[in-house]
Write a structure and sequence with these properties.
The protein has 159 residues and is of the alpha+beta class. 23% of the residues lie in helices and 26% in strands. The longest helix has 17 residues, at 49-65.
């Protein structure tokens, strides 16, 4: 089954759960530009074949449901502490695992709300509204965690 699913993933994947994006790669430079006001330590690409394919199926489903056959994939962001990262990756950001009352966090378009001492996830969201500022998914397949951006920890005098 996994071999069949691999037909649909990006060609640059190496099938590890996450891999460091080298600083010479164009995807690194694109993300680095988005985070120009942050002190980025490392960027990882998340490579979860099953979650990625669920996201693709959801995208096709939304295309079929909308009268104009339009849906969009937009990048949004969510901040986590380093301690929340593995659980978020394992459970696809389902906050109920951590005892929260809402199922998923809000994914933000604007990076200014994010603090510099967090891990930031760059998340692809499938939506019928390209202008949505804050996106709160209703299902697991509405989004795909694409990148993990680790920040350089700030010293108190740097804040």
């Amino acid at each position: 089954m996994t071999m069949e699913l691999r037909k649909f993933v990006p060609l640059n994947w190496n099938y590890e759960s996450k891999t460091i994006v080298p600083s010479y790669a164009s995807e690194y430079n694109t993300l680095r530009e988005e985070f120009r006001n942050f002190h980025v330590q490392k960027i990882y690409r998340v490579q979860n074949v099953h979650r990625y394919n669920m996201f693709l199926v959801r995208q096709q489903h939304l295309l079929a449901l909308t009268p104009e056959n339009k849906c969009y994939v937009v990048r949004r962001y969510v901040g986590l502490t380093a301690g929340q990262l593995e659980s978020a990756l394992q459970h696809n950001l389902d906050k109920r695992i951590n005892g929260a009352s809402t199922a998923y966090p809000s994914f933000k378009k604007d990076l200014t709300y994010l603090t510099h001492d967090k891990v930031i996830l760059a998340v692809n969201v499938v939506t019928t509204n390209v202008d949505v500022e804050d996106f709160i998914p209703t299902r697991d397949s509405d989004f795909y965690i694409e990148y993990i951006i680790e920040m350089v920890p700030y010293k108190p005098e740097q804040r």
